[in-house]
Fold these 2 entries.
Entry 1:
Amino acid sequence: MRASVGRPVLDKAAIRDQRFMREALALARDRLGLTTPNPTVGCVIVRGGKVVGRGVTGRGGRPHGETQAIADAGALARGATAYVSFEPCAHFGKTPPCA
C-alpha cells in the first residue's frame, strides 16, 4: 500500500483498531450529556476480531461503560481487547476500578 503525501500507511491491525475505536466513540457520543457527574464512556470488547461485548455509561453516571461491556461479553471478555473512548477508570471510589 502506498502512502499519499502526508498520510501514513496503515497496516491491517491499525485499520482494525481504528474501526473498533470508532465504534466505542460512537457509543459514547450517543449518550453525551446524560451521564453527569461521570464522563460518557463507550467500550467495545473484541476477541478474535469480533465484537463480543458493548457498553456505554448509564444515565446519571452508573453503571460505567467498561463494566457494561464486560458483563455483555461474559466469559468471552477473558483475554480479549477493550477499546475504550476514555481511559478506563482506575481509582477506588463508590465501586472498584473498572481497570
Note: Residues 12-84 form a domain with the Cytidine Deaminase; domain 2 fold (CATH 3.40.140.10).
Entry 2:
Amino acid sequence: MSQFELDDFKRMMEALSSCIILHEAESKTILWANPAACKVLGFTLEELLPLKAPDMSSTAKPYARDIGRRWLHGAVLHGTNVIEWCYRTKQGDDILSEAIATLVHLAHQDVVMVQFRDIGREEQVKREMKRLESRLKEFMQDSNEGLAVLKADGTIEYLSDAGRKLLALQPEQPLPSFIDLCDRGSRPTLQALLQVALPDSISLPINYTVELEGGVRRWHQASCRHIAIENDLRGHLLHFRDITEQVEAEQARRRQQEALEYLARYNAMGEMATAIAHELSQPLAAIGNYLEGAQRRLQNPAPDHEQIAWGLRNAGRQVDHASTIISSVREYVVKLEQAEAMVDLNEILAEIRYFIELKAGEASVAVTLETAATPLLVSVERVLIGQVVLNFAFNAIEEMRGFPVERRRVSIHSERRGNLAVLAVRDQGRGIAADLHQRLFDGFFTSKVGGNGIGLALCKNIIARHRGDIWAEPAAAGGTVFCFALPLPAAS
C-alpha cells in the first residue's frame, strides 16, 4: 500500500473544489481555509484568519454571530451539525450555502471542519419550480373559472374550455378579440391594462362586462398579470369568473335600500301629519268660533266694535298658533332630501322634540329629554336618524298608554361613550323577554296587536347604513331601553 506524506494530504485538501474552513473547537476562531473557500469568499488566507462571523456573514437576523457559534458548538457536542448559512464575500455579495460542521480530533487540538457549497442556484430553481407549480394550479382551476392569454391588442392567444363556455363561444368558433366582447364602458380599462408588462408576481384585479350574442350582458371578475413563458406564451394571463348573480343580487339590495330610505323619508311626513292633526284642530276650531261671534255681532243693529275687534284679535292669535305648527312641519319636511353630513345628534333631538311632545301630550305621557353636555358630531342623513328617534319615542309612548297616568313616563337621553354617540329611549312598560331582544329588529317581529314590525327593521337598516349599532335591553326599574350608537369622528 502506498504511503502518503503529510504534505500529500495538504496538497489534496488544497486541490478540493469544495470549500473548507477550519475553526478552533473551543474558541471558534478560524485556523485555516482551503483555496476554494478563499476564492469564493474573495479573501486571502491571511485576510480570512482574523475575521469573525459578522465580518463574513450576511447581516440578516438568521445569521447573527450567536447563532453561528451555537451551530459550531453543536458539532463539538454531537460530532456534526448542518445549517443553511449565508456567507458574505469581501465584495459584499451574499452566498446562500449548505454548511456542514464536523468535529475532527487532530494530534494537538480539536478542530471543527466546515464544508460549504453555494446553493443559491438550487434555491432559485426551487423558486422557479414553485412558480410553475402555482401556474399549473391556476390553469387547473375548476370549470367555473376561465383562463385566457391575451396579446396587447386584445387578441386571444389561448382560451380554456371553461372560458369558451363563459363567453358563449362554440368549440369550433374562431376566437374574436377579447376587447370586442366587452361593452364600451369596460374596454378602456382593459385596453390600458394590456399595455402594461407587469412582473409575474403582480396580479391586478379587474371587473368588466361582456356583451354576448342576443344582447345578453354578463359581469366578470378577473385577475390579470403579465406572463412570459420561454418559447411558449407571452402576454397577459386573465383568470376570470362570472359574477352576474352576485351583481344582480347587489343591485336588488341597493334598490331595496333605496325603497326603504324612501319609505323612511316620506313616512316622516305621515308621522308628522298624525302628530299635529289633534293640535291643529284646536286653533282651527277657535278661529271658527271667534269669526262666527264677530259675524253675529256685526249683524246687530248697534254692533259692539270693541267686542268685534277683540274676537278678531283672538282669531289672529290662533292663526299665528296654527302657522307655528305648520312652519315646524315645513322646516322638518324640506330637509327630507338632504345627503349625509356632519350633524350634532343633540341638534336632531331638538328638531324633533316638538313632535314627540305633541304625541306624548295626546297620550298624557310625561317625556324627559336630556342631551349630552357637549356636541355629538356624527356623519348622518339627519332626517333618517330623526326618523329612528321618532320611531323609538312613539313606540315608547304607545307602550305607556295602557298604564295609569302617574306611571306614563318616557325618558330620552344622549351621551358620549368612548368614540361613540349613544341615544337611548326608555319606557316603564311591560318589558320584553330577554330571549326576544335579538329578534326585535327582525323584519316581521312585533309584540303589537295588528302590527307588522317593519318599523324596527327599518330602524336597524338605517343605523347599519350609517355604520352604527342598534339594540334593546331591559330597563333597571322595569320596561325596555331602545338604543343606537353611531361612530364619532376620530379627532373628536
Note: The domain at 126-242 is CATH 3.30.450.20 (Beta-Lactamase).
